[in-house]
Design brief:
The structure is a homodimer of 277-residue chains. Chain A has two domains: 137 residues, PSTPO5379-like (3-Layer(aba) Sandwich); 110 residues, PSTPO5379-like fold (2-Layer Sandwich). With 277 residues, chain A is α+β, with helices and mostly antiparallel strands. Helices cover 21% and strands 25% of the residues of chain A. The interface between A and B is large, with 46 and 46 residues.
């Protein structure tokens, strides 16, 4: 039996994860498990893991690394007490040689002893903080997908991973831009401060009305386009790298962790507690 | 001819680096190249690099990763326009099988094609910010080394790397502690917010008068001991791991980068600039 989004939205994290693990919920995770950090996913053979980790370190705004598994271990033990990455994400995209070959809801059959899992922070955290400051976000209020663009900004390459930075765009009232920059800078695990605001052409974007992904947002008088580094960047880099096998989350269908959304470090057990000898 | 500390303290970054590269300056770097990020160093064979990178990701407060080289490439191209890690640090400690075997001023002869360089943020950045807020720091004002302690806090292990967290301690006036926590939290690449303040026994430290490294600081009425995660933590983890070869900076003798001390991301070319197609 399918569990509905509206049922789960009122539920605690344990119920949400149980429904996903059981395959009863296979849809997007926006607004679910409120208060907990959500993450993008990239799973690849160990042979590529060091280069991918370097790519994330060199491009921390599009690729904010929040968790890395041990090789071959599907349990994400820094992100939660019982997170099995093979079952605890609503939907996965499976790529072979750089091509999407299928979308599945469980990757137990695909698991290999040489796989390494990377969890990357997403924009939900800073969006919540911006909304709490009283600044409305069009795509959330209208149940749309944020518009995303392939910018002219080059990422710093590492091994086979490279490419242009993908950015997401939100219109912000001109007199609130400085505040939005300040707020989002405090969330380095959620893409940090914007990479640009104002004229899109300055970062190589021609037309705000035709995003490369997501829905076009209506221009409003007195609003400025503000651009953040986007988690689609590593997905594009991974596709271009043409790895023999790579598994990502299906866009919007994220891993929900046990880490507080506002945690300083991405560990569900804060690293500052001494439990006695 | 030796270049003196006092000469270099008034010099720009280019002169400082040239003196270090030429072997004319082989001493500590505190206060040199002001305004630029300094970094701890760990150089090891690629076979251990993925696990060490996981150790840093899992323990970001003691091990804030600010740069990682390509395998076998001694140029730290994200941290500066011309940083050669073989010559641009005043002094290096060379470990074989976990034991310190020598301290040298140039590692060109030791360089191997399988080496990976890790640069880790250090405390100088947040210390400058704390001082600028008008809060004095005893060890700096008295030209001492900050007291450091092996705490009871366990790091999160990764491969051969594990062990207790080393913390540094600074006494702070009781009514400024909240401010100091807030300030340092803004510098995740410089160890972030303190891991503890108040009773040392709560993090397994018996006696503030006998630090494991550095100089004991005098207790002052109305001051509270505040503990930050310390960059000695990865050094201890590396020693315990007993790698066949590992090269670190000699404590206090850091890499000075081209990255602004207050940069959001550790790249000397900000990643937000679009230079045109």
């Amino acid at each position: 039996m399918d569990t509905s989004y509206h049922q789960l939205k009122e539920s605690g994290l344990a119920k949400v994860r149980a429904a996903i693990r059981a395959g009863q919920y296979q849809s997007h995770t926006a607004g679910l498990g409120q208060g907990f950090l959500q993450a993008n996913l990239a799973i690849m053979p160990k042979a590529f893991a060091l280069d991918f980790m370097r790519f994330c370190q060199r491009n921390p705004k599009p690729c904010p690394l929040s968790g890395v598994s041990d090789t071959g271990n599907p349990m994400m033990f820094t992100l939660g007490a019982d997170i099995d990455i093979r079952t605890d994400v609503p939907a996965y995209n499976v790529y072979r040689d750089g091509s999407l070959i299928e979308t599945v809801n469980d990757i137990s059959d695909l698991w290999q002893d040489d796989l390494v899992v990377f969890a990357l922070g997403c924009s939900f955290t800073f969006e919540n903080a911006v909304q709490q400051a009283g600044i409305p976000l069009w795509h959330i209020d209208n149940n749309k997908t944020v518009p995303m663009f392939r910018s002219g900004i080059e990422t710093v390459p590492a091994g086979p991973f490279s490419g242009k930075m993908v950015v997401s765009m939100r219109f912000v009232p001109e007199d609130r831009v400085a505040q939005v920059v300040e707020i989002s800078r405090h969330y380095p695990l959620a893409h940090g401060a914007p990479v640009h605001w104002g004229d899109p052409a300055e970062i190589g974007i021609d037309n705000l009305e035709s995003p490369d992904w997501g829905d076009a947002a209506p221009q409003v008088q007195g609003h400025v386009p503000v651009f953040w580094a986007c988690g689609v960047t590593p997905q594009v880099a991974i596709e271009q790298a043409g790895l023999p096998l790579c598994i990502t989350h299906t866009p919007g269908h994220m891993l929900i962790t046990d880490v507080s959304e506002y945690a300083e470090v991405p560990n569900y057990q804060t690293d500052t507690h001494f439990k006695g000898e």
